[in-house]
Structure formats: structure tokens, C-alpha cells
Amino acid sequence: MYYNLRDRYWWSGMKKDITVYVCKSWTCLKVKAEHQSPSGLLQQPEIPKWKWEGITMDFVTKLPRTSSGMTCAPFKDLYGRKCRSLIMWAEVREGQLIGSELVHESTEKISQIKDRLKAAHDRQKSYVDKRRKPLELCVSDYFLLKVSPLNGVVRFEKKGKLAPRFVGPFEIIEKVGPVAYRLDLPEELNGVYDTFHMSNLKKCLADPTLQVPLDEIQVDAKLNFVEEPVEILE
Fold first, then answer.
1. How many distinct structural domains can be found in the chain?
2. Can you name one GO molecular function term for this protein (predicted)?
3. Do residues 114 and 47 lie in contact, with contact meaning Cβ atoms separated by under 8 Å?
């Protein structure tokens, strides 16, 4: 905007005023692409101390009903007994590792695995955090939500390559984790999960007073702005 206006206009502090206007313009905030580093440092999961200490499960829900139903029938539920698989025979030689030697070897291997996992975690975190910045968001503040092209079409009904990159603003109602926040989404977005990573949020700095109603702008046939006197000041 500055380069488009500097050939025709000039005033003291022009570049600063234009920068402030763009930062607070509602249209610019929704359309302008971000060139800053993503927010939020990498959060690594804790290394479990023993097997089965941490279990991760994925639940697939809300599947469409088919003609055969949506229930599952495991072998035991269907036949009333466990599945008897073929016996796999293999020759096993006798081992001499028993007692304290077995415990010592297992403990040593577990310690090595933990050390290697910790080293891999630290190395990955150092690589990722070089391109990220720490940031703390405040509850009850309003933020814009970043949408990808697919999400924009499917969830938010924003189509076309010139569609806004951000939607909102939405209020933060809760901090769920170190880098995750829950938003107060409207009723029409009840199908969207309301918790987002902070890298998908942008502070809403829009100033409603900067918006000019298009109905009040009059343009002639040559696309020139028509000015009309409003009031004479003494």
C-alpha cells in the first residue's frame, strides 16, 4: 500500500501511519499472509518408565450406517470361544542366563533405550525450536483462526484462491495445554473441534473505526472519487 500511495501523496510519518492502518485493518488481517516464525515450542511426550505405563488409543466414531449395520463381531462374540490358531513349532535351545544376570541385563538395556530416546527427543526439539518462538496467549482475548484451503472449503465455506486466510475473531475461553487453547466457536461451527494449536491463531488487532462503508463511496464513470463538502468549519 505504501508503494502505491507514495507516488501521489506524502505527509509526515506517512509510512508509519500506513503500517498501523494495515495492522489494524479488518480486511488486511484476514487476507494478508504471515511471514513470521510459527508460535509455540515443540512439546515432546514424556518417556515412560515401564511398559504399558502410557497407552495411546485412536477412536474412530460417527461412521455412517451401512446396509449391514455398523456393529463389529469379533471371533469370540460370534462363535463363543477363542480363535485356535495353528501351532508354530520351533526348536529352542536351553539358556544359561538366569537369576540376577537376567535382571542386570534387562535393566542395562532399558537404561540404554531411555538414554537414546532422550537424546533423540532433545535433538529433534533443538531443530524445531530454531524456527519457532515462545509465546503466551491470554484467556478472554480475541484471535483469528488460520484455515487451510481444504478446511476453508469444507468447514468454513470460503472458496477461491482469494478467500481469507483467517476467520473469526473468536474468544479464547480456556488454556488446554502448554500450546493448545479452546475457542468459543459460534453455533454454525459446531462440527469443528474447538481446540487449536497456538500456531494457528493470530491476535486480532482490528479497529472497527478504520472500516469505511462502501455505500458512502461515490465513483464516476472514469473510476474517479467524487468528493462532496460535508460541513464548513469557521
1. 2
2. RNA-directed DNA polymerase activity
3. yes
